[in-house]
Amino acid sequence: MGNRETIGEAAPLDAPERRQLDIIRRWGTVGALLMFVGSLGAGAAPVFSPLPGTPVLGLFARMPSAAMGVVWTGMFLVVSAWLMLGRFARPGRPRLMSRSQLDRTLMMWITPLVFVLPMFSRDVYSYLAQSQIAANGQDPYEMGPATALGVDHPLTTNVPNIWRETPAPYGPLFLAVGRVISMVTGNSVLPGVFLHRLLVLLGLAMIVWALPRLARRFGVPPVSALWLGAANPLVLFHLVIGVHNEGLAIGLMLVGLELALRRMPVTPGAPMTRDELVWIALGATMITFGAAVKIPAALALGFLGVMIARRWGGTFKDLVKAALLLAVISGVVMVATCLGTGLGFGWVQTLNVASTVKSWMSPPTAMGFLGGGLGLLLGLGNHTDSMIALMRLVFQAVSVVIAGTLLWKAFRGRIKAVNGLGAGLGAVLVLGPVLQPWYVLWAALPLATAVLAKRFRLIAMSASAFIAVILPPTGSAFDGRAYIVPQAVTAALLAFALCVFASRRQIMPLIKRDPVPDAA
Fold it and tell me: Between vectors from CA 247 to CA 243 and to CA 248, what angle results, nearest 5°?
């Protein structure tokens, strides 16, 4: 339900803790600045980049291995700063940092990253090419960049080879906004990247607005949710730097949930007021807009329907009524979006485009490779593709069962609906045909608003820190040059160790275990 659970107000940080917070801020800011500098040589720069011929700045482009070491050093500094910051945002602690203190910290870390070259992925170049196709009046759901724009087009050359012939897998709202960006920037790559990053920052602003409000509603200290959510290194690295449209989709989804719950009373069974219905419709509209960017956001409609049904009385009839209400609202909004943008419904047929990638990080794909390899070992022939297709089908069926079970448990009141949403999104994406590090955020951000358990927060913190540092910044493979990565990581670890040693008097008190007990 949308009730506000009681949150004990924590005291502000004392003077020594405020000094420690200043150290953490500077530590993370130095890391962000190193990532900015290193991106000039290690980032996923455009194919025709002006950097190599630029005085001073071009030096980094001519030293990619050293630049990569600088980036990884910055990554280690940012992640360690976030881990140290967590002690001042832990639920159950008698003294927590204030919302303004966390906001200032987040601004200090994000500001240098706004101007960083894209890293960890080259997806933003696909966004630019697909948006230009739409701007040209062509159908991005029918043609890939190579076919629609030409192989030698400046936007096509930056798209990874595997995506040059594939149509766009993104929703019509995202491509409609991208079309406007392309009309402004034309074939200019870097201005286009910057405007797409501003779009992601708009999504991040929505996340920062919604997270503390949802957290207070579900009994979690707002700064605890913001620390695990908005300040998460995965957000900084893969949304801000990587320019992934998940930022916009998740932001719209979370804002929609908060708006829909805004006027929902605690007492079930009371007649629904017109004001409450308006806010539910507004929230469902925002969630549908999120799904019109990336389809996983649509799952939030199911858990919103559960909360509405429980508000109406919690009977199966109420559940059916809530489902019909949201189906009508979201259906009207989605049809209006598809027709209003002029892009139609072709995106429904391209949702499986990403499955053409055979990523070892995806459990069903990994199982398919294992099964195919076992077949070769036993002399049964190479059936790897068939095994991958079979495993993907099985795992997707399992994810549907998991999501359905979570919906039912939330309807029966056994779990919080927002927890079910986070776990359901995690199951759908982790068990899907493709898994990328930033997909974790679909689960982590909703769960950050409602889970206080120490074990969950420890697992989420550890997983976020580990995943944040395992992906190379270049956003490309290292075929024939795999030795570069261990060299850069080794150099970065040595540089990070030197930083810790030089600042040991200031850093060591922040690493020691806080004696304050955690929330249960």
Answer: 110
Answer whether 163's CB lies under 8 Å from 126's CB. yes
- Report the pLDDT value the prediction gives residue 277, as an integer from 0 to 100: 87
Instruction: Categorise residue 473: left if φ over 0, alpha if ψ from -120 to 50, beta otherwise.
Output: alpha
Q: Which residues of 283-305 are buried (b: 16+ CB within 10 A; e: fewer)?
A: bbbbbbbbbbbbbbbbbbbbbbb
Token pair recorded at residue 384: 């790897």
Indicate the average pLDDT of the chain. Answer: 85
Residue 268: phi and psi, rounded to 5, are -75, 155
The region, left, alpha or beta by phi > 0 then psi within -120 to 50, assigned to residue 516 is beta
**b/e 490-507 (16+ beta carbons within 10 angstroms → b):** ebbeebbeebbeeeeebb
Q: What is the pLDDT of residue 271?
A: 67
Nearest residue to 173 via CA among 20, 287, 53: 287
- In this predicted model, what pLDDT tens digit does every residue of 473-506 receive, in sequence order? 876 655 445 567 788 888 889 998 998 888 877 7
Please tell me the pTM assigned to this model. 0.89
**Which 8-state DSSP code applies to residue 86?**
G
Q: What is the DSSP string of 439-466?
A: GHHHHHHHHHTT---HHHHHHHHHHHHH
Do 243 and 119 form a contact (C-beta atoms < 8 A)? no
Q: Provide the phi-psi class of 333: left if phi over 0, else alpha when psi is between -120 and 50, else beta.
A: alpha
How far is Cα 481 from Cα 485, in angstroms, rounded to an integer? Answer: 8
